[in-house]
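Hi support team,

I've been running sequence recovery on a batch of backbones for a student project. Most finish fine, but this one hangs at about 90% for roughly twenty minutes before it completes. I'm not sure whether the input is malformed or the queue is just slow. I've pasted the C-alpha cells below so you can try to reproduce it. Let me know if you need the job ID as well.

Thanks,
M.K.
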C-alpha cells in the first residue's frame, strides 16, 4: 500500500490541525493504520493507531484527550485530529500501515511537518 500524508503546518499553541493520510494499492479496509512522529533529536514514537474497522483505537499518553484518530474506508483515508496543540507536539508526523493493531508497520508515508509555536 502507498501512503500520502498531508495537512501539516505552523500553528500557535492551543490551536488545531487535521492530518490526512490517503492510501492506495492494497485493500485499505483490511489494514490497521497508525500515526507516528519524530521530533528533532528524538526517536520516532507511536502517537495513535486504529484497527481496520475503526472499532479500536490506541493513543500515546502524551496525546490522550487531545488527538483523535479516525478513518474513512470509503475514501481510503485515515485522519489525525489534533487539538490543544503544544510546542512539544512539534515533529514530523508519519502515517503507517500494519497488518494488525500494534504490529510492525510495513509501509510508511513521506511525513508531514507540524510546528507548534509558543
Amino acid at each position: 500500500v502507498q501512503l500520502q500524508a498531508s495537512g501539516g503546518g505552523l500553528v500557535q499553541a492551543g490551536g488545531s490541525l487535521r492530518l490526512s493520510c490517503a492510501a492506495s494499492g492494497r485493500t485499505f479496509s483490511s489494514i490497521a493504520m497508525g500515526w507516528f512522529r519524530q521530533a528533532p533529536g528524538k526517536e520516532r514514537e507511536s502517537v495513535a493507531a486504529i484497527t481496520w474497522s475503526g472499532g479500536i483505537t490506541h493513543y500515546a499518553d502524551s496525546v490522550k484527550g487531545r488527538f483523535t484518530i479516525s478513518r474513512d474506508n470509503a475514501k481510503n483515508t485515515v485522519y489525525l485530529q489534533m487539538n490543544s496543540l503544544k510546542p512539544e507536539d512539534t515533529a514530523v508526523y508519519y502515517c503507517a500501515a500494519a497488518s494488525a493493531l500494534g504490529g510492525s508497520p510495513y509501509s510508511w508515508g513521506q511525513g508531514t511537518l507540524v510546528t507548534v509555536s509558543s
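--
Follow-up from support: It reproduced on our side and the slowdown came from queue contention, not your input. The first strand starts at residue 2 and ends at 6. No action needed from you.
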